Amino acid sequence: MKRCIQIAEFGQGNTFPNPSVGCCIVMNGKILAEGFSSKAGCNHAEINAINNIKEKSVLSKCTIYITLEPCSHYGKTPPCVDTIIKYKFKKVVIGIKDPNESVNGKGIKKLQKAGIDVITGILKKECTDLHKRFLTFQLKKRPYIILKWAQTSDGFISPKEKINKVPFWISNKKSRILSHKWRARENAILIGAQTLRNDNPKLTTRNWNGNNCNAYVLSKNWSTIENKKFNTNGKFKILDKTTINFDNNIAKQICRVLFENKIQSLIVEGGTKTINNFLDSKIWDEIRIFKSDKKLARGVKAPNVSLRHKIQIQIDDDKLEIYKNSDENLL
Predict the structure, then answer these.
(1) What H or E segment, with its residue span, contains residue 108?
(2) Distance CA 182, CA 267 (A)
(3) Does position 292 have pLDDT exceeding 70, yes or no?
(4) Tens digits of residue pLDDT in 15-24
(5) What's the rounded Cα separation, in Å, for the pair 46 and 24?
(6) Which active-site residues does the annotation give?
(7) Cα–Cα distance measured from residue 238 to residue 192, given in angstroms and rounded to the nearest whole number
């Protein structure tokens, strides 16, 4: 199962709206084949692993390990349980159940009814962490929320105005590359309109080989002039007064809109006001902060976070702090 989790990482960011599942086929303690999820509409992990076995007759002597319960319904692809039953696997080992109402234990029951031995809950915590985006979307009816920013040692996320009319980079180059890697793994990115006006960011993964995610901009007063200036070819989806009531819980409404748009994960990159909407509403799953030795003396203050439990990683002269909002409801 550890190997299944490891190979599932290869598909992260490329399988939405499906989760990135990992699968191994084992006989006599030896892995014969592996597979992870293809993009939506293509083969699931189980089928990719099975297709990597040339001599299908050996499958009846094999155990198949899967991080998530195999599907039992017809979607864009046939049910994976039917293929597992067809090849008469002797045992199926599953990390966690699929909470999707189309599955939710039905795959397990169908396998058991066919006489196949099924074991569940193997490395449950690790498989839950792997599938946290999919599980949050299914169980909480909202995207998995990551709040991310960079701040100076004196607590600012940006200068009041551009210095010499060029971007002021707080984090170092390696940190910025890592940020683009993160973008490639998530379904969408969100910034506030003021950040767009000040920086006109591209919000792409140009420093990493990966997909560009959906880009959203939160704006209370979005104008047709701004639309022409910043939103050429509709590259940004605007969350304005037509979709958000700015007098009520903004973060909750954003989550509702994104859930309706089938967005399973969101990385919120600023500015402070946009990030504080989620902090104040306590709607977040991870916080990632790059802390730099640089100083500004004056500028836009960083969000105030006073949490104890954190992971610290040194990235050259930057320090990355990661906070996770532990939620047992996903287990």
Answers:
(1) helix 106-113
(2) 8
(3) yes
(4) 999 999 999 9
(5) 8
(6) 46
(7) 10
